């Protein structure tokens, strides 16, 4: 009987170690970070929100254009454009630079690279630089609404939970620097 109890205790210890290693290997909480650094004002704003919290809170907000986890896109009218068809065509297209505009005061670049939608804008007049990098799964989630005049924030948050560490948006101008990113740290840089 002692041998049986000893063997069961050993099995229990192994099972506990297996469970503990599975729990520690579970996906860590993902955080949405926003950092705004006022260059001239010396103001600093940091936001660090667990995506699981954002996923629960966003559908509960019913203010202005935000309702039920979706944002209504105001006066956007393109009745004769099938955005889902265009979106699916871009999704299936090979990686590449799709739009490039170079003017004396502005540069704009739109591309698809490594399963990401890339938008790069430079406005030389205002000294502004904008970089947007959206994982394709997040872009698909944003476009997963019932109407062409909405973007689905709740679905995008769910997709971000599965995305790796990534910088989504950076904006730099003469007055401030803004960075929006996702990672598993509960504090910002």
Secondary-structure-based class equals: alpha+beta
Characterize the biggest β-sheet: 8 strands, antiparallel
Mean pLDDT: 80
**Rg to the nearest angstrom?**
23 Å
Helix content bin: 25-40%
Runs with pLDDT <50, length 5+? 1-25
Output the strand order for the largest sheet.
2-1-11-10-8-7-6-5
Question: What does this protein structure show overall?
Answer:
The protein is of the alpha+beta class and 189 residues long. It has one domain. Helix content is 30%, strand content 37%. It is built from five helices and eleven strands. It has helices at residues 2-24, 51-57, 83-92, 136-142, 153-162; strands at 31-38, 44-50, 66-67, 70-72, 96-102, 106-113, 116-123, 128-135, 150-152, 166-172, 176-183. The strands form two sheets. An eight-stranded antiparallel sheet has the order 2-1-11-10-8-7-6-5. A three-stranded antiparallel sheet has the order 3-4-9. Helix 2 (51-57) packs antiparallel against helix 5 and helix 4 runs antiparallel to helix 5.
């Amino acid at each position: 009987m002692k041998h049986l109890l000893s063997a069961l205790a050993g099995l229990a210890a192994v099972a506990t170690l297996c469970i503990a290693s599975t729990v520690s290997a579970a996906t860590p909480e993902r955080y949405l970070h926003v950092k705004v650094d006022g260059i001239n004002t010396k103001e600093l704003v940091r936001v660090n929100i667990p995506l699981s919290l954002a996923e629960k809170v966003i559908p509960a907000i019913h203010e202005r254009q935000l309702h039920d986890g979706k944002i209504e896109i105001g006066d956007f009218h393109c009745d004769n454009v099938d955005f889902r068809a265009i979106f699916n065509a871009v999704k299936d297209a090979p990686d590449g630079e799709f739009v490039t505009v170079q003017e004396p005061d502005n540069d704009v670049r739109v591309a698809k690279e490594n399963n990401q939608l890339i938008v790069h804008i430079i406005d030389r007049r205002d000294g502004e630089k904008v970089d947007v990098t959206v994982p394709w799964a997040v872009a698909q989630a944003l476009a997963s609404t019932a109407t062409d005049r909405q973007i689905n924030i709740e679905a995008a948050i769910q997709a971000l939970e599965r995305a790796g560490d990534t910088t989504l948006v950076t904006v730099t101008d003469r007055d401030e620097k803004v960075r929006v990113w996702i990672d598993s740290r509960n504090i910002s840089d």
